[in-house]
């Protein structure tokens, strides 16, 4: 006998329970009618979308979920449906997976391991389940688990001891660099421990700063990957299991399509595109407007914007001032031309002059400093926001993680905007991503990649006048932000200057207030600025030890 399992990795809208339910019904019918599947599996919390956060506290959640479940039971037949949702049982809310067939709920599993770290807040909302669930699906004993359960041995071993012959894991595992390989190692370990095949069905889509890349896959009882759905694509992907009727029933996955692995640059770039596209479309913005400086960060941001929603919905604005070089003007125009976007040149000198004249009495007796530089950036921010208000376009900010970390950005200036695709991208990775994007089609001029980065807010200014080299800076930032190493621990590595390390770490801590006011952006590393890292603005912590 053959059991065909359909893995449905779909892009849901958080909170839109009614339309999410309709998507489940449509996908179940497609899995049954076009893929001839026996069972269709949806990811964790599919009915609410993921993560629903404090929507789980809304009083009407319970009735909406009950209506959703009943609708699926009424409208889907002749296929087993495994789907995730929140459900209140005896007064407590659980993260559940239900198995539906022929108008009946055959069983319901409650997630046992509740992550409460980094971007996860499960214990804020849910109670822990304690019991396994084994459901008979075409004479195969199927055990369920949900996301974090698979990261621990106990739930899978519990299912095995209860008689499971196949484990299905409903997941909403967010993307970060190299996460794909970590998951494969994890499922290999669980399969070897239980000697059972495992189906891992992952969420696909983006929600605010989090990106879910899909990539659902299957391992056999020896932990070998035998099926792999594409990354960053919605769809229904099937895998067949051979079920041998012997004294001990044995379920063996048959070899299937394995999507090719992605490089770091390819996976990061696709995550940026997906994150931006879903943010624009789900929040119903008409398009994107961004400041195009002729520099590398805005060039990469523009390319991502075009790849996300199309050139016809993107406007680039060059806002030159006295210190803007002719090279920047030329490069910005070339970038806009190569990508085919609407391009405007709006000089800001008249506006900056008006500000300076108005402020002259207040500035009398004070020497020039970064105040005058910040006025340029803030004038550009006002200009972009005016275009945004008038046209309904969202302002895309262009600052990278290196700059955001040390505060090399102007609050209410170049930090103005609704979203940032570079928020979790160190400058050294920006260069690599530009090289990668040009392999898909030349859109970022070579000179933009090779010239020394500059904010061009003062004569002959380059970034490394104010900062260490980006190679050195990014390594220190990685150790401090993503690995939580102290200044002295970083110095013990033996490759950095003491003064530089203490200066960089102090800048990171001092600029927490800026990052709190920065727009959200795609999370790409294990420790982005956002839900991952929650440090107090006001604190007296000493960075040395």
Query: What integer value in Å does the Rg equal?
Result: 26 Å
What do we call the CATH topology of the largest domain?
Nitrilase/N-carbamoyl-D-aminoacid amidohydrolase
Give the overall average pLDDT: 93
Spatial order of strands in the largest sheet:
5-4-3-2-1-14-15
Q: How large a portion of the residues is in β-strands, by DSSP E?
A: 15-25%
Classified by CATH, the class of the largest domain is Alpha Beta
Largest pleated sheet: 7 strands, mixed
**Helix content range:** 25-40%
Describe the structure.
Residues 3-243 form the CN hydrolase domain. The protein has 545 residues and is of the alpha/beta class. The chain has two domains: 2-262, Nitrilase/N-carbamoyl-D-aminoacid amidohydrolase (4-Layer Sandwich), CATH 3.60.110.10; 269-463, Rossmann fold (3-Layer(aba) Sandwich). 38% of the residues lie in helices and 20% in strands. It has 17 helices and 20 strands. The strands form four sheets. Strands 5-4-3-2-1-14-15 form a seven-stranded mixed beta sheet, with helices on one face. Strands 6-7-8-9-12-13 form a six-stranded mixed beta sheet, covered by helices on one side. A hairpin with a 2-residue loop joins strand 6 (134-137) and strand 7. It is elongated. The N and C termini lie far apart (62 Å). The mean pLDDT is 93.
Set out the fold topology.
Blueprint lengths: L1 E8 L7 H17 L5 E3 L19 H15 L4 E10 L2 E10 L2 E7 L11 H4 L8 E4 L2 E7 L6 H9 L4 E6 L7 H16 L3 E5 L1 E4 L2 E4 L3 E3 L5 E4 L6 E10 L5 E4 L10 H19 L4 E5 L4 H14 L4 E5 L7 H14 L2 E4 L3 H15 L6 H22 L1 E5 L3 H6 L12 E2 L6 H14 L5 H5 L19 H13 L4 H6 L5 H13 L1 H5 L29
Parallel strand pairs: 1-2, 2-3, 7-8, 8-9, 16-17, 16-19, 17-18, 19-20
Antiparallel strand pairs: 1-14, 3-4, 4-5, 6-7, 9-12, 10-11, 12-13, 14-15
Helix pairs in contact: 1-2, 6-7, 6-12, 7-8, 7-12, 9-10, 14-16
